[in-house]
Design a protein that fits this description.
mainly alpha, 24 helices, globular, disordered N terminus
């Protein structure tokens, strides 16, 4: 047993891994109803405290522009990037509005409204009347309809009156456009800068009759949470109608809508957003390799790497109703002419990605995809440390600290005592001050040494045979694996790996990191997911059934 140095290894606490059980197992998973994930919370669940006004993320802002106005544009490209906290850029506490962002919002609203005014077809799609002549009734209907979708609730009488005044004050404000078109343009500018659009505002305040720790959200607030979780965007008219009709007032109604929303193509947005951030896929965007060692590598391969992983995730999570294990172990992926060379595939390939079946003895899920292997390597060599840190931090939720700033990370050159990368890493990290962390880091990295710096299978390193056998620390267990395929299967089958995936989804779905009060809910979710074979869609549905999702904390109200 390798000694684990305190502070160098941690993650999911032992109490988080308790097998508490949840009922008799007949209600979870599949196509039936998801059981209550909070069933283990004997003293009642306690939703985490969130601000009552949470700014939309930049990706959500872009999606709103598409869904509200039909404009396929990404205005947030001009914004400073959202800050990632705990691995995700939707952390509620970090989503503020700086002076610069306020200016960016104003400029964006002006450009979007101008773009729409110059696009008669898009403009007509928003209206129920002829924009060539000003019409009070039509203006009021436009404000009422567009305002409801943008505000994610019906506008109040005062809001309707205020936007009416904005509409009729626009005549002559712009150089082009009929008076009605100018009114629509100015209203869109104003709406897109409203706090009720830029923030997800929850005004619910009445305590639940069943618990002083819960404030039930209104139907419109539930609709908003559903749409931003499952579509990364604003609710549709149909979802708002459901909120108005009371269809979201109980868990069963929320579940029914969640399932329907996951069958919509808009569900692709958050599924990719979550996995891109969890897996740090931004690292695939600009991979550089030594042209002398890898003469076939070029910048276009970075694009193919990312597209392969995104297409793989979309297929597993949404198209095949796949599981966490499928993400980690499936040998079906996508390749074009460049990736076919990396994967050693024969046949006629073009620049377009096509589905391929890879050798199951060489490839298993995300860990053996070329993009991950190439992005977690140096330009001229592999990096067991980079790969091992990723496995422990991202896939096993282990608390691996960054090395001290004064540590020399340069490996010693090959010599007679240390020829392979594995031998050199072992020599470089064997000192007692390093080994406490590197015993857990190096092992999974060594298991991935059967792939070179661009992700190709290899059997030798510097002329010596590659040794990919390793004993990997997975939670509190020591697991013997021989190569990446065995490593991937070991992680997929482990409770630690499953729960790490779940906890990351919990953080993303609830826009915050977990706290001790969340553990009973997380335990309940885990038990339900074990029954459902960790089906990814079922996990997303189960998130909507928690008290954390359907209620807010009274602490924020007080």
């Amino acid at each position: 047993m390798v000694a684990l140095t305190p502070g160098c290894y941690g993650g999911l606490a032992e109490e988080d891994l308790a097998d508490d059980g949840v009922g008799d197992g007949e209600d979870g998973g599949g196509d039936g109803e998801v059981s209550n994930p909070d069933s283990l919370c004997m003293e009642g669940p306690k939703p985490g405290v969130l601000p009552r006004a949470v700014r939309v993320t930049h990706s959500q802002y872009d999606a709103m522009v598409i869904d509200l106005l039909g404009l396929d544009t990404t205005p947030s490209d001009a914004f400073l990037a959202d800050v990632a906290v705990g691995g995700f850029s939707n952390n509620a506490q970090a989503l503020g509005v700086t002076d610069r962002l306020a200016r960016d919002y104003r400029r964006s609203a002006e450009l979007i409204a101008e773009n729409l005014a110059d696009n008669p077809d898009k403009l007509a799609a928003l209206l129920s009347c002829d924009p060539s002549s000003i019409d009070t009734a039509c203006a009021e209907e436009f404000i009422r309809s567009f305002g409801r979708r943008a505000y994610r609730r019906p506008l109040t009488n005062d809001e309707l009156e205020a936007f009416g005044n904005v509409f009729f004050s626009a005549d002559g404000l712009y150089e082009t456009g009929a008076p009605f078109e100018q009114g629509v343009r100015l209203v869109i500018e104003a709406v897109l800068q409203s706090p009720h659009v830029l923030y997800r505002i929850e005004l619910s305040s009445e305590l639940s009759p069943d618990s002083e720790d819960l404030v039930p959200l209104t139907g419109y607030e539930i609709a908003t949470r559903l749409s931003f979780l499952l579509w990364d965007s604003t609710p549709s008219d149909a979802l708002l109608d459901a909120a108005e009709a009371g269809e979201l007032d109980d868990a069963e109604g929320v579940q029914a809508w969640a399932r329907a929303m996951l069958d919509d193509e808009r569900a692709t947005r958050p599924v990719l957003a979550f996995h891109e951030q969890w897996l740090e896929l931004d690292g695939l965007d600009d991979i550089q390799k030594d042209q002398d060692l890898f003469p076939g590598f070029h910048s276009g391969m970075s694009v193919a790497f990312r597209e392969e992983t995104e297409r793989f995730i979309e297929r597993v999570a949404l198209e095949m109703d796949g599981t966490y294990a499928d993400l980690m172990t499936s040998n079906v992926s996508y390749a074009n002419s460049d990736l076919a060379v990396v994967y050693g595939l024969s046949g006629d390939f073009t620049g377009e990605l096509v589905e391929v079946e890879l050798d199951s003895s060489e490839r298993a899920g995300l860990l053996t995809q070329a993009g991950f292997l190439a992005s977690h390597a140096f330009s001229n060599a592999t990096s067991p440390i980079q790969r091992g840190v990723f496995v422990q931090r991202k896939l096993l939720c282990a608390a691996i600290p960054d090395p001290p700033g004064d540590v020399d990370t340069t490996l010693p050159p090959p010599d007679n005592s240390a020829v392979t990368t594995r031998e050199r890493v072992t020599a470089h990290t064997s000192a007692p001050a390093c080994s406490g962390c590197h015993d857990s880091i190096n092992a999974p990295g060594f298991a991935l040494e059967g792939y070179d710096a661009v992700g190709r299978v290899r059997s030798t390193d510097n002329g010596e045979p590659v040794d990919a056998a390793s004993t990997v620390i997975i939670g509190s267990d020591m697991v013997d694996v021989d190569g990446a395929v065995e490593l991937a299967h070991a992680i997929a089958q482990s409770e630690v790996g499953q729960r790490c995936y779940l906890v990351n989804w919990f953080r993303y779905a609830n826009m915050r990191t977990e706290n001790p009060d969340d553990q009973c809910t997380i335990n309940g979710l885990h038990e339900l997911m074990v029954e459902a074979d960790y089906d990814i869609k079922e996990l997303m549905v189960a998130m909507t059934q928690t008290a954390t999702f359907r209620y807010r904390s009274p602490l924020e109200v007080q």
